Automatic annotation (TrEMBL):
Signal sequence annotation: none
Swiss-Prot/TrEMBL keywords: Repeat
Name of the protein in question: Pentapeptide repeat-containing protein
InterPro entries, per database record: 5peptide_repeat
Source taxonomy: Bacteria, Bacillati, Actinomycetota, Actinomycetes, Kitasatosporales
UniProt superkingdom: Bacteria
Pfam families named among the record's database cross-references: Pentapeptide_3, Pentapeptide_4
Residue intervals passing through the bilayer: none
Presence of the UniProt keyword Repeat in the record: yes
Keyword Aminoacyl-tRNA synthetase listed: no
SUPFAM superfamilies: Pentapeptide repeat-like
Length: 214
């Protein structure tokens, strides 16, 4: 199967930024460090060659934003809204997020490493060359999403919803804990390990209407 092309972000010298966010704002070559961005509105904003470190993003509204060649480290928040956003060549490291809205978003060459993300909404999103590495994804919703060259490396993936998703070259083999709540029929195009097949056997049997009795 084709491997994902990893994001390779090389940031230039950055200028410290201490302001807030504005709709359709243009942020280029800036370092956002330790800022409280909770509740701020940056819909349609563009971030290019930026570093966002240890910032609070509770209820931050970034719908249809464009995030290009950026590194996001240690961000934390609940209800961050990135619906319809575009993320390309982005590294997300040690994030602590809950209820993040990414439905309809486009993720291309994105690395999510470490951290924990609870209840991310990725319905109808498009993911290409995305790597989830060493992170915890709790009840992610990939309903109707398109996943191409997506790797889940040494992750915990619990309560996943893949209903009506379409997959091509999706690698689940090294997921440490794989729980699929819905959409087992959408796994065509994914690869799993023999051990995972045995663990998922009851789910496959239930989907097929097979009753297992000894």
């Amino acid at each position: 199967m084709a491997a994902a092309r990893r994001a390779e972000v090389r940031l230039p010298d950055l200028t410290a930024y201490e302001g807030g966010l504005e709709p359709d704002g243009d942020y280029d070559g800036l370092a956002f460090t330790g800022l409280d961005l909770a509740g701020q509105a940056g819909a349609g904003a563009r971030f290019m060659d930026c570093a966002v470190r240890d910032c609070v993003v509770d209820e931050t509204r970034l719908t249809a934003a464009r995030v290009l060649d950026c590194v996001l480290t240690g961000i934390r928040g609940v209800g961050t809204d990135l619906a319809g956003a575009s993320l390309r060549d982005v590294e997300i490291v040690d994030a602590r997020l809950g209820g993040t809205q990414l439905h309809g978003a486009v993720l291309e060459r994105v690395l999510v490493r470490g951290g924990k993300i609870d209840y991310p909404n990725l319905r109808t999103a498009k993911l290409r060359d995305v790597v989830f590495e060493g992170c915890v994804l709790n009840e992610p919703d990939f309903g109707g999403a398109r996943l191409e060259r997506v790797e889940f490396r040494d992750c915990v993936l619990t309560g996943a919803d893949f209903g009506a998703a379409r997959m091509k070259d999706v690698d689940l083999r090294t997921v440490e804990r794989l729980e699929i709540a819905r959409g087992v029929d959408a796994l065509a195009g994914a690869v799993i390990s023999t051990g995972q097949l045995l663990d998922l056997a009851p789910v496959f049997a239930a989907h097929l209407g097979v009753r297992v009795e000894d």
